[in-house]
Design a protein that fits this description.
The structure holds 2 protein chains of 2 kinds. By secondary structure, chain A is mostly helical. Chain A is about 70% helix and about 5% strand. In chain A, strands 1-2 form a two-stranded antiparallel ribbon. In chain A, a hairpin with a 5-residue loop joins strand 1 and strand 2. In chain B, helix 5 packs antiparallel against helix 6 and helix 10 runs antiparallel to helix 12. The longest helix of chain B has about 40 residues. The chains are: A mainly alpha, B mainly alpha. The interface between A and B is large, with 46 and 47 residues.
Chain lengths: ~325, ~300
């Protein structure tokens, strides 16, 4: 490698680095943002947020209850006893009562949690990954491709979320898998929008220019500079989607588009028991209470996460 | 200014077209054959084939789209064999009922949300703020259909105060019928508007210009007037989206309270696989949503000069 030296006014000869030198420096060095300390700091702040920790504990408890359902109840969630139809809460052997077919509600809630929690998580994860890819790419390349991508997103955005989910769910046909696909499709445009606007802002930062000038190629730029810096905003936004996902998925089941009977899913259970509000009102609201608790807990955890990530909030 | 209006209106044309493409594609992949639905399951293959040809179902997809779009633009959304009515008739009738419910819900949610958000923002950190924040977080997380059922249990089944279904438009009991669907349907709107307003108020009070106003010796009321004008902009931005929530959520709320609007029409059409009704109703709701957002954008550009550049 040739090193040109120049005489400076001070007389000391400084080497002038070539483009190759910069490239080599880029290759040798781990140029990513010091992500570990940022996440360590975020975790520390989150753990000090009582509301966030409480919400997280509730969620973990519910996930554990759903996973270990067979250990917690001896009842079959799918088989009922016709003589035990619509028993009230705290009745003999059925603390949550029984449904319109005499099935134990506690068992159905536990097993139903598996489907309902899945329907809350999976669409959020899928939409976050796909939306981030689309949005970040669009915000990075801009131009015709970027604009085209975002205008396509705008078209999906032109539907009210629940209506789009219902329309997609109706055309795919009923079933939990189709519900998850429908909700994922609904969530991709908003995630892409957040990612695009974040990527646009980051692209204009001086450190991007600096990285480009020192020889980083497109892929390196995306991976080491852009993604780490847009990801925080996307994660905060997406964490708020889990609760919404829970509600939209439950709404689809409620309308008969989600998981099919006899599978216990909270939204479906709420609808199936709607006719029994005069006989066993407390039993009817139980699935709704669970949908509500999970959704509140996710929203609280999301709020706490947002505050923990914001370095301005102190703490 | 006129330029901006025209540009913004032009910009929404591709979006409107995109909406029609999406709906058309969604409904063409819907399982079930419309021709079979029309002539019945036990029809001969020959007669099914004839109906298919009559309906143009054998044409290539782009041709079918253009034909469908042409019919749609002329107000012909097809015929519902299940309901034995023109889809356009069904929708027109249902539309009025939905507009009434959504209008009252929007009013309740937006006005209530702005009021609560202002109180919370001004009393930041005080008891009132905490109560309102808990309330809005609850409202955000409670599914409208769950709240609707709880309200039905309390006010209809237990107390017998409010009627559980219908609009009451023909017997003068409209307001008794309105209360539950309105409150249940707009609680999310109320909660989101509260949060947005609170955040906007807090942010605006922290802005430099408020310092300047204070330094100039303006009173609290005067400052509030300035803050209000600046803080209302983000609230308006979300208000268009809120109306979307209301229109989409109508499917659930109207179904539960048997309110004969677009939502109940869609729900019944889904369960009876009445393809054209789902298509038509979804289209009308989505177009309304786009137009409302367009109006909100234009209103904003009119009252907030900072946004004119962004819009244009």
């Amino acid at each position: 490698m040739t090193t040109i030296t120049t005489a400076t006014p001070l007389g000391n000869d400084l080497p002038l680095l070539t483009v190759e030198d910069h490239r080599a420096a880029w290759a040798a060095q781990d140029v990513g943002v010091d992500a570990k300390s940022f996440w360590a700091e975020t975790t520390r702040r989150f753990l000090r947020n009582r509301m966030g920790v409480f919400a997280l504990a509730v969620l973990l408890l519910l996930v554990a209850a759903a996973v270990f359902a067979p250990l917690l109840t001896s009842y079959d969630p799918l088989v009922g006893n016709a003589q035990d139809r619509l028993k009230g809460v705290f009745s003999d052997g059925h603390i949550f009562g029984t449904d319109e077919q005499g099935r134990d509600m506690f068992a159905r809630i536990l097993y139903g949690g598996r489907l309902s929690l899945l329907a809350a998580f999976v669409p959020t994860v899928v939409a976050t990954v796909v939306g981030t890819l689309i949005g970040t790419w669009a915000g990075f390349v801009r131009g015709v491709v970027g604009n085209g991508l975002m205008r396509a997103m705008d078209m999906l955005y032109a539907f009210p979320a629940i209506l789009l989910a219902i329309a997609v769910g109706a055309s795919l046909g009923p079933g939990l898998k189709n519900t998850i696909i429908a909700v994922s499709i609904v969530f991709i445009p908003p995630v892409a929008r957040v990612a695009e606007s974040a990527a646009r802002t980051v692209s204009m930062q001086e450190y991007m220019e600096a990285a480009r000038l020192s020889g980083a190629n497109r892929w390196t730029l995306l991976r080491t500079q852009l993604l780490p810096n847009v990801l925080n905003q996307i994660i905060v936004y997406s964490s708020g989607l889990v609760g919404v996902s829970m509600i939209i998925a439950a709404s689809l089941s409620f309308l008969g588009l989600g998981s099919q009977p006899p599978a216990p899913e909270w939204g479906y259970m709420l609808n199936a028991m709607r006719g029994s509000i005069y006989v066993a009102p407390l039993v009817v609201v139980i699935p709704g209470i669970f949908i509500f608790v999970v959704s509140v807990a996710f929203n609280m955890a999301s709020d706490a996460l947002r505050e923990s990530m914001d370095s301005r909030s102190g703490g | 200014m006129l330029n901006i209006f025209i540009r913004r209106v032009m910009l929404s044309i591709p979006i409107l077209l995109g909406v029609t493409v999406i709906i058309f594609l969604l409904m063409t992949v819907l399982p079930g054959d419309p021709a079979t639905a029309l002539v019945g399951e036990d029809a001969t293959p020959a007669s099914i084939a004839r109906v298919r040809a009559d309906l143009g179902l054998d044409d290539p997809l782009p041709v079918r789209y253009v034909n469908w779009l042409g019919d749609t633009l002329s107000g012909d959304l097809g015929y519902s064999p299940y309901r034995r009515r023109d889809v356009t008739d069904l929708i027109t009738q249902a539309w009025t009922n939905t507009a009434i419910l959504a209008g009252f819900s929007a009013l309740f949610g937006l006005v209530g949300g702005v009021a609560l958000g202002f109180v919370a923002g001004i009393k930041r950190g005080k008891a009132a703020d905490k109560v309102i924040s808990v309330f809005s977080l609850t409202g955000l997380s409670i599914p409208s259909f769950f709240l609707a059922i709880v309200m039905l249990i309390i006010f209809s089944a237990k107390l017998g105060w409010l009627p559980s279904s219908g609009t009451g438009l023909d017997d003068g009991t409209f307001f008794q019928h309105l209360i539950m669907p309105m409150v249940a349907g707009s609680l999310t709107t109320l909660a989101i508007t509260t949060r947005v307003t609170r955040a906007a108020i807090i942010e605006t009070y922290g802005a430099d210009f408020v310092q300047t106003l204070r330094a100039k010796g303006l009173g609290n009321t005067e400052i509030f007037r300035h803050v209000f004008k600046n803080a209302i902009s983000p609230v308006l931005t979300t208000s268009g989206l809120q109306v979307g929530y209301l229109l989409g959520g109508a499917v659930l709320i109207e179904t539960i309270f048997r309110w004969p609007g677009m939502g109940m029409l869609v729900f019944n059409a889904i369960s009876s696989r009445d393809l054209l009704v789902v298509q038509g109703a979804t289209l009308v709701i989505a177009l309304t949503f786009v137009l409302i957002n367009l109006v909100v954008d234009l209103v904003q550009a009119t009252i907030d000069p900072r946004l004119r550049r962004v819009v244009a």
